[in-house]
Write a structure and sequence with these properties.
Elements (H helix, E strand, L loop, with lengths): L4 H12 L21 E5 L2 E4 L4 E4 L14 H11 L10 H13 L5 E5 L2 H16 L3 E5 L16 H6 L9 H5 L1 E4 L4 H8 L4 E6 L15 H12 L2 E5 L11 H6 L5 E4 L10 E5 L1 H4 L18 H16 L2 H24 L4 E5 L2 E5 L8 H4 L4 H13 L2 E2 L8 E2 L6 H19 L4
Parallel strand pairs: 3-13, 5-6, 5-7, 7-8, 8-9
Antiparallel strand pairs: 1-2, 2-3, 4-10, 9-10, 11-12, 12-14
This protein binds pyridoxal-5'-phosphate (PLP).
The site of pyridoxal-5'-phosphate has 15 residues, from helix 4.
């Protein structure tokens, strides 16, 4: 038997990279075992270093709305690369990408590009503090907004997976400016905004980093009203939901306009891009138009702008993409309802468009306490069972599943068949 390349690579990686990975959740810490090292990807399929293929529902954690190696995106990147990979000077492509973002996202009048979602959120927070002259920031328990210090308080996703919601290295002073409320709880939010010291509310308009948790009816509208009443800015962190739950993101889907929006993931078409944008009066505070400093050597990078442009152009020209994703999602809704009905397993299925989560609990799952109620050991068996079936899900219960243009009806059948078999072993065949 040939030794596993995945094992060898993981050993080599751990010798020179902390934990062997460049982002914690990739290491399979929560579920154990060796992560597949990916060699290539196409459409909805990943291929690892041992030559195994997987049907992918991670989608690089969100960016791959069009599937892997989409020809329009790859073509644009190759063409751009041949003309040079970085200039540190303005280019026509950036203008094109900015115009697309402004056209597609309802509340954005001006936008600045950065290199990650983390950079987008930390910059938007700086703008909000400058605009209001206030220091406080409110976020939700289980809400993830990247790894800047101010946000590493009761953050979901990777931090929750590791069980270190408050990271060492974040100073007490920084953490003291961050207030945390329960998601979907307007009373809790009202109480924390009352003293008028909060610059902005940061919210995932559909939570995706405690698993997928939709906003309760009226929650986003209520936030808009509370912010207006208290002079607080409303920031939608649409790094995950942007261009995914609708072409214009959650603000289009739910009809609520934030003051500032952060973007990432899909906006880069699979290359490293983030963005923050909003009303002109707020964005004109950003240097060099205004005094709020923000900069980046590789921001607006030609390859990244080309990929983002190609992805957004495709999305804008193919609105039927969302019908396709909704149909696939509906197929999963029906299939999972049938499995639940037939076997009586405790399952909660939350879905908004092409982002979804299956919680191995009775539910409902509406906030962090209910999202984190499942047993870790049960999730581990579920995850490894699905992986053995060739289904690649995030190795954490606090991550969403993503559907893409490359997924088909028969892929959904494969997923449902694998689910039914795996759940039988997780819950015992005759639950
Ligand atoms: C992924 C994510 C981020 C962080 O983006 P990075 O590019 O990983 O820095 C921020 N906010 C939300 C809602 C995200 O899903």
């Amino acid at each position: 038997m040939t030794p596993s390349r995945n094992h060898t690579l993981f050993d080599q990686a751990r010798a020179v990279i902390p934990g062997g990975v460049n982002s914690p959740v990739r290491a399979f810490g929560k579920v154990g075992g060796t992560p597949p090292f990916i060699e290539s990807a196409s459409g909805a399929t990943l291929r690892d270093a041992d030559g195994r293929e997987y049907l992918d529902f991670v989608g690089s954690w969100g960016p791959m709305l069009l599937g892997h190696a989409h020809p329009a995106v790859i073509g644009a990147v190759v063409e751009a690369a041949q003309r040079g990979t970085s200039f540190g000077a303005p280019t026509e492509r950036e203008v094109g990408l900015a115009r697309r973002v402004v056209e597609m996202v309802p509340s954005i009048e001006k936008v600045r590009f950065v290199n990650s979602g983390t950079e987008a959120t930390m910059s938007a927070l700086r703008v909000a503090r400058a605009a209001t002259g206030r220091s406080g920031m409110l976020k939700y328990r289980g809400g993830y907004h990247g790894h800047a210090d101010a946000f590493l308080v009761e953050a979901g996703s990777g931090a929750a997976t590791l069980g270190v919601p408050d990271s060492p290295g974040v100073t007490p002073g920084t953490a003291a400016d961050t207030r945390t409320a329960e998601y979907n709880d307007l009373d809790d939010t009202r109480r924390l905004l009352d003293d008028g010291r909060v610059a902005c509310v940061f919210v995932e308009p559909v939570a995706g980093n405690m698993g997928c948790v939709p906003p309760a009816p009226g929650f986003l509208e209520g936030l808009r009203e509370l912010c207006d009443a208290t002079g607080t800015l409303l920031v939608f962190d649409e790094v995950m939901t942007g261009f995914r739950v609708a072409p214009g993101g959650a603000q289009e889907r739910f009809g609520v306009r934030p003051d500032l929006t952060t973007l990432g993931k899909i906006v880069g078409g699979g290359l490293p891009v983030g963005a923050f944008g909003g009303r002109t009066d707020l964005m004109d505070l950003v240097a060099p138009a205004g005094p709020v400093y923000q900069a980046g050597t590789l921001s607006g990078n030609p390859l990244a702008s080309a990929a983002g442009n190609a992805a957004l152009a495709f999305i804008a020209e193919h609105p039927e993409l969302y019908t396709h994703l909704e149909a696939l999602g509906g197929q999963l809704d029906d299939g999972i309802a049938r499995i639940r009905g037939t076997h009586g397993y405790p399952l909660t299925w939350n879905r908004v468009g092409s982002m979804a989560s299956l919680f191995l609990t009775e539910g409902p799952v509406t906030d962090w306490p209910s999202a984190s109620a499942g047993e870790a050991e049960r999730f581990t068996r579920f995850f490894h069972g699905m992986l053995a079936e060739g289904i690649y899900l995030a190795p954490s219960p606090y991550e969403a599943w993503f559907l893409s243009l490359a997924h088909t009806e028969s892929h959904m059948d494969r997923l449902l068949t694998a689910l039914e078999r795996t759940l039988a072993t997780v819950f015992g065949a005759s639950a």
